[in-house]
Amino acid sequence: MNMSRNPSWERKDLLGLKELSAEEISLVLSTAESFKEVIGRPIKKVPALRGKTIVNLFYEPSTRTRISFEIAAKRLSADVINIATETSSVRKGETLIDTGRNIEALKVDMIVMRHSYSGAAVMLARHVGASVVNAGDGWHEHPTQALLDIFTLKEKLGRIEGIHVAIVGDIAHSRVARSDIWGLTKLGARVTVCAPSMLIPPCIGEMGVSVTHDLQEALAEADAVNVLRMQFERDSGDAFPQQLEYFKNFGITEERLKKAKKNIIVMHPGPINRGIEMSSEVADGANSVILEQVTNGIAVRMAVLFLVSQAAENRKTRRTKSAKTESQVIAPGSLIGTPANSLLGKPVNT
Amino acid sequence: MKERARIMDKAGLNRVLLRMAHEIVEKNKGTQDIVIIGVCTRGAFLAQRLAALIGQVDGVTPPVGLLDITLYRDDLSSIAQQPVVHKTEINFDISDKKVILVDDVLYTGRTVRAALDEIIDFGRPQFIQLAVLVDRGHRELPIRADYVGKNIPTSPKETVEVRLEESEGRDEVVVLEKDA
Asked: ipTM of this model?
C-alpha cells in the first residue's frame, strides 16, 4: 500500500491547544469532518475503539461535556465508566495521582478529566501511562471545546485563516477563551476580546489578541462572536457588576447585532444565562449556531479519542517491535522487522 | 522499492475494466437494483469507472458510493503510518440492492472483511459481490472475488501497486519488490 506522507498524530494525550501545531489542529478538524458523517448514519456506531475502556473523571459538575464525551466514546464502541468525584473516594481524601494510578490499575486505556485546578490534566498525564484527555482544567484550557468552536466556524465560513472572531465575557476565568485564542491564532484568525476591565486578565495582549471594553467596537468587524458564560460559581459574585448592568453594557441583543455584520455567527459554549450574556431572541435567533456546536462536539471528541488512542497503540507496537528486532540482531538477513527498522532510529515523539 | 514487472498499461486497464463491466451486467442479467460501492481511495475511482462503463454497456449507470473502512480495520495498531479517516459517502438506501463492492488489489482479504461489516451497518442488501482489479493471492480469510481483472501470483516480499489517473496521474499496474 502506498502510504503518502500524511500529517500524523503522535500524542498519547490531549492536554491543551497551546502545545499543538497548526497541522495537528487541522488534522483533528479533518478527522472530525469524517466523524460527522458517521454520526449522521442510520447506525451511528463504528468499531474503531472496541475493547477500549474510557473513564470520565469529573471533579467539577458538567452535563454537556461529560455526556458529549460519553456519547463520542460509545459511538466508537468503547466502554465508558463515569466517576463523579462527589460520590467517590476523593471525598475520603485520596490524591489525584493516587486516584489516577488506581484507575490505571483497573486496566483503563483513557482518562477524560475535568478538574478545577489549572494544570491538573498535565500532572495526571505525567503520572499515568493511560491516555489523558483534558475536559477542562481550572482557568487553563478546555481544548475540545475550542476545537468544536473552530470546527463550527470552519463549517460555517469555509476557512479560519483571516477571519475575525470576537470573544465577549468573563475572559479572566475562562479556559474556553484561552483555548480558543491559542487555536484560532495558530490557524491565522484575528481575535478580539471584550469585557469589563476587571474580567480581562493582565498580559492577555501577549497571546496575540486585541482588547477592547466597547462591545460595539468588538462586534463591528467580527465574522463571529463567541459569548462566554458569566461564571458566578467561580466567584462570590461581589466582584461582578450587577448582572443587569452587565447585560446593559455587554449583553448581546438583536439591537446590537443590527450594527454588526449581517451574517455574524453567534456562539456560546453553554449553559446560557439568558438575559445576562445574551437575550433569548439572540440565543434562539438566525445567527445562533449554539445547538450545532453541541452536535459538532460529538464529532470533534470522537476524532480526539480516536487519534489519541491510535497514537497510544502505535507506541505500544513500536515498543514490542523494537524488543523483537533487538533479540533477532544475531540473525542477519532476517526479514522480520527490516523495513520497520527505520522506525527504530527515530526517537519516539512526545 | 524496485520495479519488477509492469502488468498493465492504460489500454490494458481499460480493456480489463470493460470486460468486468460486461461480466457484471451478464451475471446479474442487467442493471436492475445494482449499486457500486468502492473502497477508498483507489477502489472508489475504479467504482466510478466501472459504473460509467456499465452505463455504456447497458444504458443505465448505477449509483456509486464510496466506503472508508479505516474505522472497521482490525490492524489499526499494526500499520506504522496512521491511516487518515475519510468520509464514507453512500447517498442511497442499500436495502434489497445488489451491491458490487470494488477494490484495487485483493490480498489478505482483511480490507474486504472490514468493508462487508461496514456495508451491513448501512442496511441489508440482497447480496454483495466482489470485483477487484488484481487478485494477488495470500488470503488470510475465506474470501473470494466474483470478478477479477487479473490474477497475479506474487510472493509476500512483493507488492502490487495500482496507479490511477485520478490519484497518480497515470494508469498502470506494477509489481514492486520490497528492498531486502
From this structure: 0.74
